[in-house]
Amino acid sequence: MKPIPTIWRPALVVLLPALLWLLFWYRDTGLAMATIWARSETFTHGFLVPLVTLWLIWRQRTELARLQPRPLWWALPVLLALGLGWLLGELAAINALTQFAMTATIIVSVVFVLGRQVSANLAFPLAFLLLAVPFGDFMMPVLMDWTAKFTVLGLRLSGIPVYQEGLQFVIPSGNWSVVEACSGVRYLIASFTVGTLFAYLNYRSLKRRLLFVLVAILVPILANWMRAYLIVMLGHLSGNKLAAGVDHLIYGWVFFGVVIMLMFMIGARWAEYPDETAGAATPADTSAAPAAARFWLAGLALAVSIVLPHALRAVIERVERAAPPVLQLADAGAGAWKIEKRALTDWQPDFQNPKAELNASFRDGANSVGLYLGYYRGQNYDSKVISSANVLVHSQNKSWARSASGAAQVELTQPNVPVRTAELRPGGALESRSDQRLVVWQVYWINGRLMNSDVLAKAYSAVLRLFGQGDDAAVIVLYAPKDQPGGGQETLQRFAREHGALILTTLQQTKAQR
């Protein structure tokens, strides 16, 4: 093993301890990533990504030894911006943002200490590290919808009659539904990760690399559609003796494995082998080597930039400590709507770990409306108003299922308030579709402001916390039976118009208890 070149020693003496210092301060974020890797089969590859990055760097050691490390000072503002991004992610409890910020901080720290020339040669190995972030679950609803639509289209083109509602559909041989495991997001993420590495190792031109990565994205999506269609056809033709239970998952992975293997075999036919004479770098000019003091100064600046966002978070958390909320319905006044003692239905939104909940029903003659409030304060990764785990109804719910969703502008103390809409039906077979259904409106209340966008609500909440305004937030859900006037929509609008102030006053009073 060759000794470390003299021109590299000051840089490595600063960089390696700085990376350990970074991992120490970001240990909770790193452990959260590792926990997801261990828990989710979709992101198990995260354990391998750092090892692959190290291997990619090691295989370039000869070329790197000829280069001169040199601190790149314009990277320092980028580090500070990433620290702010991590802080905002912590304040809003956004896993993806904190984990991307931490990973990007590692990358930019290397760029900061080693400089432009070295970093240019390490561009792909460093960028590949971003694939360790467990990211992509947000695509699941869209992929599930696409899979359901393609499967139903394929069945109809095959001459099989289909009745569809949302992600559930019925054919003469039985009922089927598209659940999370059928979305194909695992196939897509696995194909993209391996396909990106394959493209880098086998092609030299950027055009071929990008083209193969595009293929690695499209092929698993199309393959998953075909997989879902073939599994339903196999079950239909076999009288549901095949492709039932977990068998369809096993068949799916076998089918996906064959498709991906064919993709790589075809891609290898156009492989570009490296030019043996093109990689010879000229020896570094050691006469222009930066003094060791510049590396020590860069290391000090890096250490401070790493600690700064954590210090700010500690200050914010100390300032905004508050008592647990107590959610009590404000005085309803003398309106026509009267509070019912019994619940409207057995359904309740599936929101995780609110600090306070309220579930009430109201009646005005023959019309009835349900109200659910989930209040959050001192939000963290286990208790936050906006989360992929917070839904109106989970796909595994046996009692209720979502049959439609959308958006609308309604009047809630003010006109044109954007809300999410949904229709829920009793669970079980779709033959129960004649039973009582619910129409649902959902909107977020973020420190007094109404909004229905997850992204905007998260950003607004983080900024409020950054400026010491607290993190009080709630979800407002109104629901009514569909068999009421206007399909339930008119009932909901009348209740929202007459008692919207009641809802907002209740939330404001709860906030005032801080």
Summarize the structure in words:
There is one protein chain. The chain is an alpha+beta fold and 514 residues long. The protein is built from 15 helices and 11 strands. Strands 4, 5, 6, 7, 8, 9, 10 and 11 form an 8-stranded antiparallel sheet that branches. Strands 1-2-3 form a 3-stranded antiparallel sheet, with no helix packed on it. Helix 5 runs antiparallel to helix 6. The longest helix is centred in the middle third of the chain and has 32 residues, at 206-237. Mean pLDDT is 86; it is low at 277-281.
Report a brief summary of the structure.
By secondary structure, the protein is an alpha+beta fold. 48% of the residues lie in helices and 15% in strands.
List keywords for this structure.
11 strands; about 525 residues; alpha+beta; about 15% strand; about 50% helix; 15 helices
Largest sheet: 8 strands, antiparallel
- Give the number of DSSP strands: 11
Give Rg in angstroms.
Answer: 28 Å
Sheet/helix structural class: alpha+beta
Low-confidence stretches: 277-281
- Quote the average pLDDT: 86
Write the element-wise H/E pattern from the N-terminal end onward: HHHHHHHHHEEEHHHHEEEEEEEHEH
- Overall shape: it is flat
Helix count, per DSSP? Answer: 15
Helix and strand arrangement:
Blueprint: H1 9-25, H2 27-39, H3 49-58, H4 61-65, H5 75-92, H6 95-114, H7 116-121, H8 123-128, H9 140-157, E1 163-165, E2 168-171, E3 174-177, H10 185-202, H11 206-237, H12 247-268, H13 292-319, E4 338-340, E5 356-364, E6 367-376, E7 400-410, E8 417-426, E9 438-446, E10 449-451, H14 454-466, E11 473-481, H15 489-511
Helix pairs in contact: 1-6, 1-13, 2-6, 5-6, 5-13, 5-14, 9-11, 10-11, 10-12, 11-12
